[in-house]
Recover the amino acids of this structure.
């Protein structure tokens, strides 16, 4: 592998232009070499943002570049399988935005191609790299709040204009693929176990499948209740209840993990400790303010991908993590349609 990893971006819509392009242009160890985008206006704008990159209308032409090492796949979800498989078959390492596919049939084809190609395959569950979730996992591993009792999570956004493809489930839209996929992955990340049963209710208010309620049971019996919506308010929050207290992660509003004891009344020592912890959060605040949409994890995730391809560390979350998240989503949709709980087979 050469000193700089030569990276291409396939799909230069608003997300790639807001996140991938500005980060990759300045990411140590990487050189943003090529872009592919079929829409002429977006292609022109992407080329303006990265003048040194070769710009293609067809991603297949980009993949033919012999000196290209890796690609970031940021196309509409219904095209994820087609593009990712083509890239891996040509020996390119792949960072695939979540969800990995619209359904398990396509996801299984991706997994097969990944296994055969023996390349790095990473999925864009960037919130794993958010400092708040990293800290929460450490607190849970230390049993800070004692044996766990239950979990509640909310991930919602207000009604906004969206691309046509995002308005229908068959094209890769809906709150389950958009928002719930992140929290399902975070449940596996935080509690280090898989989902065993799913019970769900899914509604269509403004667009198809834009509101959902999930009840999950994990391998050890822990229950997780989640609410997801694309027509509510901006909120992204986990509340984790233990016998000795409560742990809260509020990605939008907190600078640190909030821990309360079972009594709920902070002592004077606890108040002093909280002030000191807020001072220690200044570096995180600085990174947050400098990051796209105030989310530092985007840069960390792409940096980990570059490091994994260059042999510096294991790629995680990988495509298998993407498959497991999609497996829960498909089970939830089956549950909502059948009106009963769906069990998942341990792997």
């Amino acid at each position: 592998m050469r000193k700089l990893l030569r990276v291409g971006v396939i799909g230069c819509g608003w997300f790639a232009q807001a996140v991938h392009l500005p980060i990759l242009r300045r990411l140590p160890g990487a050189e943003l070499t090529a872009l592919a985008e079929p829409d002429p206006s977006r292609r022109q704008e992407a080329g303006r943002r990265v003048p040194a990159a070769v710009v293609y209308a067809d991603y297949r032409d980009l993949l033919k570049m012999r000196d290209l090492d890796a690609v970031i796949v940021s196309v509409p979800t219904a095209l994820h399988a087609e593009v990712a498989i083509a890239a891996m078959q040509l020996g390119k390492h792949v960072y695939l935005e979540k969800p990995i596919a619209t359904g398990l049939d396509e996801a299984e084809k991706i997994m097969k191609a990944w296994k055969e190609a023996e390349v790095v395959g990473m999925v864009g569950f960037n919130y794993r790299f958010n400092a708040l979730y990293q800290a929460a996992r450490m607190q849970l591993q230390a049993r800070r709040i004692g044996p766990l009792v239950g979990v509640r999570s909310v991930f919602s956004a207000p009604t906004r204009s969206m691309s046509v493809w995002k308005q229908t489930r068959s094209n890769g839209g809906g709150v389950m693929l958009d928002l719930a996929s992140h929290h399902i992955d975070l449940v596996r990340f935080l509690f280090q176990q898989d989902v065993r049963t799913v019970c769900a209710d899914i509604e269509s208010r403004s667009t198809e499948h834009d509101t959902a309620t999930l009840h999950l049971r994990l391998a050890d019996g822990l229950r997780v209740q989640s609410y997801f919506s694309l027509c509510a308010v901006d909120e992204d929050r986990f509340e984790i209840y233990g016998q000795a207290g409560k742990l809260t992660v509020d990605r939008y509003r907190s600078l640190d993990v909030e821990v309360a004891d079972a009594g709920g009344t902070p002592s004077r020592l606890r108040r002093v400790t909280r002030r000191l912890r807020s001072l220690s959060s200044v570096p995180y605040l600085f990174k947050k303010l400098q990051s796209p949409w105030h989310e530092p994890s985007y840069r960390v995730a792409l940096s980990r991908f570059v490091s994994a391809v260059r042999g510096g560390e294991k790629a995680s979350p990988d495509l298998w993590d993407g498959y497991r998240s999609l497996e829960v989503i498909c089970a939830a949709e089956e549950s909502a349609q059948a009106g009963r709980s769906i069990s998942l087979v341990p792997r």
